[in-house]
Amino acid sequence: MSAIRASESSLLASSQQEELEDLPKDYPLSTSEDEGDSDGERKHQKLLEAISSLDGKNRRKLAERSEASLKVSEFNVSSKGSGEKLVLSDLLEPVKTVSSLATVKKQLNRVKSKKTVELPLHREEIERIHRQVAFNKTSQVLSKWDPIVLKNRQAEQLVFPLNKQQSAFAPIEHVLSGWKARTPLEQEIFNLLHKNRQPVTDPLLTPVEKASLKAMSLEEAKMRRAELQRARALQSYYEARARREKKIKSKKYHKVLKKGKAKQALKDFEKLRKVNPAAALEELEKLEKARMMERMSLKHQNSGKWAKSKAIMAKYDLEARQAMQEQLARNKELTQKIQLASESEEEEGGTEEDCDPLVSDVVNEVQVKANRPNPWMFRNHSSDTKEAETQEDPEELAGSMAHEASESEEEEGPVAEEEILLKEFEERRSLRQKSGLNQIAEPVGRPETKDSSSQAILSELRVLSQKLKKENRQSRKQEVSSVKTVLAVQREKPAQEEEEPLLLQRLERAQTLDKLEELSKEGCFQNKELPRAAAEGQCLERNPDNHLGAPKEKKKKEQMIDLQNLLNTKSPSVKSLAVPTTIEELEDEEERAQRQMIKEAFAGDDVIRDFLKEKREAVEASKPKDVDLTLPGWGEWGGVGLKPSAKKRRRFLIKAPEGPPRKDKNLPNVIINEKRNIHAAAHQVQALPYPFTHHQQFERTIQTPIGSTWNTQRAFQKLTTPKIVTKPGHIIKPIKAEDVGYRASSRSDLSVVQRNPKRLSIRHKKQLKKNSID
Amino acid sequence: MKVKMLSRNPDNYVRETKLDLQRVPRNYDPTLHPFEVPREYVRALNATKLERVFAKPFLASLDGHRDGVNCLAKHPKSLATVLSGACDGEVRIWNLTKRKCIRTIQAHEGFVRGICTRFCGTSFFTVGDDKTVKQWKMDGPGYGEEDEPLHTILGKTVYTGIDHHWKEPVFATCGQQVDIWDEQRTNPICSMTWGFDSISSVKFNPIETFLLGSCASDRNIVLYDMRQATPLEKVILDMRTNTICWNPMEAFIFTAANEDYNLYTFDMRALDTPVMVHMDHVSAVLDVDYSPTGKEFVSASFDKSIRIFPVDKSRSREVYHTKRMQHVICVKWTSDSKYIMCGSDEMNIRLWKANASEKLGVLTSREKAATDYNQKLKEKFQHHPHIKRISRHRHLPKSIYSQIQEQRIMKEARRRKELNRIKHSKPGSVQIVSEKKKHIVAVVK
């Protein structure tokens, strides 16, 4: 910094100098102004001097002056013309007195007020300053590389070349644009693809799919995806359910199922008739065909093998009789000509005069149902037995057991519940038959009561039942709209009397009344929605069932596990803890034989004794020896058979001090050699190597294995990554500012050099001059 | 009855193709794999031994020059191309893959003092004892054309070295002063001096490209800034520096090859103390070149050997020599950091592997994994005496060996004397100068 300051001061000095140079230019101007005045004064002075020279002293002085003094001397300033001496005080005199020199004074003052100017620096000095400034600047520029250099030095791995060339990802369309099918096979495939409007190139989408993709916004897409997911989930539920049902072997159940299906089909048909008469007609035709087939066949005619056998038993067995009757009824049913619903309605309306035409079909249905034995009764029985079975056999595996139990219970839930409903309904029907007064209210009340009961028993079925009810209502409500509101109120009254949950339903109902139009529109979609709703219901069902079944199952499970655990854990514990004799007892004959053989083979080896002996020897060898300094024959008689006396021996025996206790003193089956092994020492590191600060650090690094024998593949790869990776055949360029995220200098070095013409020209000249000298 | 069968997924056990390796299920239970340290130690020992067994660094000798090879240059775009200039003024271009000379030019009368390629690789420059700078096309002349330089600049004095800017059409020559030339002009756009001496080499900084370093015969190294057209700093060493080389990954680091058998790595911001003094050569170091990774450099010496030094170590990790190789004048590390070339007095250019025991060619993934593992093992156990001994063992020609012994004795004697002097003088009166500081005479600002 001092250098910079120095250079600055030198520059300042030079500027001041320039100012000084300017000053003299002004000065003469001002003096010329006063010239006339000073001339007059000088003459006056001369006159005065001439007068005073009349005095003797002066004259002599005057005479002393030679002619030569007139000439210009370099030591004296002489005034022109005469030989008078010019005194400095004379020159300064007028400055003080004359006021017209104020400007000069002012200028002089200004100059005085400024500091004295330093001498311009020596050229070498200036150059040095320049160098220092440049060096500092360059050092600063370079110090931006410090973090990068440090990072690269410490890097775990450096991959060269540093600037990775990003592989350009060209869409396959671009790649394939120039490609044409040449071989006949290719052409054929292409033709096929084009015919089916299949996409040839990468985004494997048909035009339709593309359009849909474009059309869909993100939210739409999300919704759609969610929908699809739901559908998939539902499908899987259904599949699971179907599989479960398929597994059920009970004939009765299947029979009931079939009936249920038939009923459902009938219902559907009714609906279809209203919505789409043409389709209904077709259905009808199908049914007609089925009827024809039935009539043609001998099925359900009580002519089969089974029927004959039953017929024998029918006399004594009530059930058999019933079964036969059932079959006949079925035949009748099937062969009966199906009439259009409207006709049946009319007919039934005729039979039951006071029955409301609106509710008639429902009632009719119920009656049909009632004619047949209630299938759910059988179902209940079977499930009961099944449950009993499951409870009876605890030998089954815990897992499968739990699974099955949950399954069975799941099924039971709705089944039992529905059965109760049906019972209720039957009771009601009988009541109604007795007194036809409630007939109007009842069918409407039926779903409600059903619901209430369902909520009382199991809330989870509510969704399902609601759906069912909705359907019923929907079929009716188109007509209901025309019916007076009074009727609705009447209907609702009994509902209000019942339990609380009905309130909720009622609310819903009011809503549905309002949204009748919408509902009617939705009607056509409801078929689609139904499976989902059902599945949801199922889904809901599952959880509480599980909760209910959980503790019981758990208990069972625990029991099972305990048993197994006992067995499992016992055997290894026996193996590990028991004494060898017990093992032998447990072992098979073969193993015993083998052992015997081994024993015989190594009969002579007593390993334990050998080891003990070896250890004793090692201990002996490691003990410090006593030094016996007795000299036989010294002070005594010596010779063959003569021993030095005990006294002497005792006297000259130097007892070795007891060494430190052996490390293996308390370890019975180990020999620890405490001697330094020279052979091992040759492989040992003597001093702590450089980067480590503590021997433990070093030992730890040595003790962590890096091989794939001790590490997983991933860890092995990570541990053995080389520090520097170079790609073969790739040129590694020097690091660039752009590579590491720095801004590269925008100006080129060349342009900077060329923009510096002044300095260059000086140097140039110098160089040229030098060259010319050479 | 349900029969329970042991079933396995064949995908886990059966190979998809015959070429696949058999799947070997592993149990990583440490109790099953005891003695990890001794086993790894043995593996490391074997790896070290094998490394020495396979250490065959010499690849090829390119002969054809009729005088000593004085300078070498790498092609900036092609790994296979190398240029060399000889003491009889002949320039040859070599193809390394074919190991053949593909072009010969009689470029100068007298020595070819320096050679450098343009950053784009289309042309190259040579300077010679005949006071000329010549620019040549990289491609040979067409049929019937004469092999003539693109441009020739006639100078007043001899040029002793040349280097090209890394990005721009600018080159620098050195002789009595450092000249910066625009390729388009016949006069230098800038010339920089600091005192009067003959400058032996000039080098552009590859990262901060406006910086230059030069070394002169009056034992100094001078740094220049091209933009400000001024020298920056000068360091005077004990003996003459023959050449310098900048680190291509660390902008402020350069290494100087000195006559006093040592190499000095400097941080250019603090020239008063070298970062590292590299000593192993037993004669003047004539040339130095960095590996493109910036982690190592190779030096050529008058003692007929080349050595590879890690940047942060004062001792060399490798020494290459052959019976027939004489004083090595120039050396270059190829741009893929795999090979080393050296040109020597006896007219040959030799090609060496940078890693003596490295297997050339494409490695399979298993081979690669094995070499990586071995490398790591060697690194892990490098301090163990046996491994250290084996990995450090090199055969040396008798001349070098005896010289090393001699110098060791001399050094020991000097050290002893110094110790004695300290012992017998007033405490504090004799200053102990560190090895790094010992060789620096002065830093001139």
Automatic annotation (TrEMBL), chain A:
Residues 756-774 have a biased composition (Basic residues). It is found in: Nucleus, Nucleolus. InterPro entries: SSU_processome_Utp14. The keyword Lipid biosynthesis does not apply. Keywords: Nucleus, Phosphoprotein. Residues 542-558 have a biased composition (Basic and acidic residues). It comes from the Eukaryota. Residues 1-17 have a biased composition (Low complexity). GO terms for biological process: rRNA processing. GO terms for cellular component: small-subunit processome. Residues 1-52, 374-416, 432-455, 535-558, 746-774 are annotated as: Disordered. The keyword Nucleus applies. Residues 407-416 have a biased composition (Acidic residues). Belongs to the UTP14 family. This is U3 small nucleolar RNA-associated protein 14 homolog A.
TrEMBL record, chain B:
Keywords: Nucleus, Repeat, Ribonucleoprotein, Ribosome biogenesis, rRNA processing, Ubl conjugation pathway, WD repeat. PROSITE patterns: WD_REPEATS_1, WD_REPEATS_2, WD_REPEATS_REGION. Pathway: Protein modification; protein ubiquitination. One of its GO terms (cellular component) is Cul4-RING E3 ubiquitin ligase complex. It comes from the Eukaryota. Belongs to the WD repeat DCAF13/WDSOF1 family. Gene3D superfamilies: YVTN repeat-like/Quinoprotein amine dehydrogenase (2.130.10.10). It comes from Camelus bactrianus (Bactrian camel). The lineage of its organism: Eukaryota, Metazoa, Chordata, Craniata, Vertebrata. Pfam families: Sof1 (PF04158), WD40 (PF00400). One of its GO terms (molecular function) is ubiquitin-like ligase-substrate adaptor activity. This is DDB1- and CUL4-associated factor 13. The gene is DCAF13. One of its GO terms (biological process) is female gamete generation. It is found in: Nucleus, Nucleolus. Part of the small subunit (SSU) processome, first precursor of the small eukaryotic ribosomal subunit. During the assembly of the SSU processome in the nucleolus, many ribosome biogenesis factors, an RNA chaperone and ribosomal proteins associate with the nascent pre-rRNA and work in concert to generate RNA folding, modifications, rearrangements and cleavage as well as targeted degradation of pre-ribosomal RNA by the RNA exosome. Participates in the 18S rRNA processing in growing oocytes, being essential for oocyte nonsurrounded nucleolus (NSN) to surrounded nucleolus (SN) transition.
